[in-house]
Amino acid sequence: MSGYIVRRLISMVLMLLLLTLVVFLLFNVLPTDPARLTCGKSCTPAVIAANRHNLGLDLPVWQQYWEYLKGIFVGRTYGSGTQTFTCDAPCLGYSFKRGEAVTTLIKEGFPATFWLATGAFIMWISVGVSVGIYAALRRGKWQDKTVMGISLIGYSLPSFFIGLVLLFFVVLRWGVLPYPSYVSPFENPIQFLQTMILPWIVLAILYAAFYMRLTRNQMLDTLGEDYIRTARAKGLQERVVIRKHALRAGLTPIVTAAGLDLAGLLGGAIITESIFSLPGLGTLVVSSVNDADLSLLVGITLVTATFIIVANLIVDLLYAVIDPRVRLI
Amino acid sequence: MSTSTSGGASGAFVDVRDLRVEFPTEDGLVRAVDGVSFTVERGKTLAIVGESGSGKSVTSQAIMGLHNRKTTNIAGQVILDGQDLIAMSDEGVRKLRGQKMAMIFQDPLSSLHPFYTVGKQLVEAVRVHQDVSKDAARTQSIEMLERVGIPNPDRRIDDYPHQLSGGMRQRVMIAMALLNSPSLLIADEPTTALDVTVQAQILQLLQDLQRDFNTAIIIITHDLGVVADVADEVVVMYGGRLVEHGSVNDIFHRPEMPYTLGLLASMPRLDKGRADRLDPIPGLPPSLIRLPAGCVFRPRCTFHDRVPGSLCDTVRPDLVTTGPGHEVRCHLPGEERRAIAAERLGARFEESAS
Questions:
Q1: Which residues of chain A fall below pLDDT 50?
Q2: Number of Cβ atoms within 10 Å of the Cβ of A230
Q3: C-alpha span between B322 and B324 (Å, rounded)
């Protein structure tokens, strides 16, 4: 098992390296010249050239990549003379547009995204899974059909639509909640909750709808298994058959899906964050795209991909704990 | 056979009377079992034989009360030791399941829960019906594993099902079924998923345990070899109906229903030459939603032209008694049936005449 983990960690590092390469090259072939973006309209070629040199953009691509990699592990220094900027490890680049290290920007944006993702995660898992189980146990009856209908609606409504509708009625029309303005939960928990409740709901609706279906189908598959019939043939009470035998096996695949979905969301929920102007990674992605801020975009992409790769490993390890048939070798 | 109202009047330990099981579906009513009756005594083995979809597994699950009664129509009587299980509450039947009657299934790997050790599953089976501590249940389980021939049962008990071989798994299933000393054991194709040498061991084990526990066994199979090995009595089912019922000798040496003849003729035999091809029954089993009018076997029967008129096409044949304990559902006249059997199974008759 420990050998397996070591091997998985090594392959994870290789995968991340490959990822940095692909992302780096991809953004390098884009037709925008980062140096051109560093100064405004009244820009002389000389300034651009100087900036290009300061940012290391005059080096060959492979050398830029090497500098970039080095920056992640040991940090790097941009510019020369009086105009230097030190970017500490892990340095994911320097946003000349914002005059700030990418790592710093991501660190600032992460808390809002983290709270949004985890809050919504708790909501959608608890609602989606329990409602899914309920529907499976009442398969084919009106309760099941209602749940599946609601899930279809929830699944088909785009989050920007639900978000805007909620914002319009709850905040603007009825004034039930103040206009969302993000604060840290440690600073002002009330305002935090008032701000987050709508984004949580919007994000949770989409995922809960999906998890209802997923859970229902998993449960129905499991309830049709031979070992459920064996459990009944033993004379177990239906309650025990469901709780001990069906849930254990039926919910295992949900763990995989949940882990990956949460990791994906930690990279930013672009639409939800934008609607409620939460200062998270999703909002950062949108503005970096608008500004053609490549280094910031590369940084966020890498962070998001890292979350997913790490979550994948965790989910695999967790699976081995849950399912004794999975042997990690 | 009288149609007395009080359960167990016939005295048989298991008495299935006119059992009907129907599943309403969107395509129509599936008549999976239609008026099946038989009895089994303690210490005896009844085999239910038939092709896939003949209703044999549905029959066995109806006896165990494993069908969801809200979505299944079940009628008739299943009398176990004087109690009618069909008239009983769900909770009442549940308490008998695993205790007075137990069941083992075709595929032991998929029938055991993959996430729990063998021990956990056995201990659970003990503790549903007996008020004992976990340790006591574990001791009982280890003893039972030893009894069914599992080596090192005190270590094997902590294995997961996937760590055992197919034969071992089926032994675990048998151990689980026998933990509460049931007086009726239903085995649904218990050897189909196993290889041949293991099949023989499992059948031997079932017979040994039957002797020790004086269990009534109902074995569901499509393997006539298994029937010849273990059965005392045989029920042949076709299209949800009982088409022939008799002692194992009746079925193998004096079969009268053309379907039974077909089953026997399609059985591979070592004493036949390689040139002799197997003789399969033409056609497919009928859809249980739209059964043919008249005899359900008529579309596949090669002897219907020997029945006068269009009886086979229009009238459902009744079950007629043709010998002591031997019943047949066929329109052919008795002498005609026996003549056909002699003609089709001539060689077999000569051999076994002695």
A1: none
A2: 26
A3: 7
Q: Which amino acid is at A118?
A: T
Query: Tens of pLDDT along B170-204?
Result: 999 999 999 999 999 999 999 888 888 888 999 99
pLDDT category at B144 given cuts 50, 70, 90 is very high
* Nearest-CB residue to A235 (from B95, B111, B115): B95
CA distances from A123 to A199, A271, B53 (A): 11, 18, 46
Other beta carbons less than 10 A from residue B292's beta carbon: 16
Q: Please report the DSSP string for A4-56 in residue order.
A: HHHHHHHHHHHHHHHHHHHHHHHHHSSS--TTGGGS-SS--HHHHHHHHHHTT
- Which chain A residues are closer than 8 Å to B124 by Cβ? 234, 236, 244
- Closest Cβ opposite residue B129 in set A230, A235, A244: A235
B102 close to A (CB below 8 A): yes
Does this model's pTM top 0.90? no
Residue B207: the pLDDT is 94
Sheet of B73-80, strand order: B28-40, B14-25, B73-80, B83-84
Interface test with A, best of B60, B89, B115 (most A CBs within 10 A): B115
Q: Is the Cβ pair A235, B96 closer than 8 Å? A: yes
Instruction: List, in sequence order, every residue forming a beta bridge with B64; answer none if it has no partner.
Output: none
CB contact under 8 A, A249 and B115: yes
Are A230 and B173 inside 8 Å of each other by CB?
yes
Rg (CA), chain B: 21
In contact, B236 and B245? CB cutoff 8 Å: yes
Q: How far separated are the first and last CA of chain A, in Å rounded?
A: 6
For residues A31 and A72, give the distance between their C-alpha atoms in angstroms, rounded to a whole number: 25
Burial (CB < 10 A; 0-12, 13-18, 19+), residue B68, is exposed
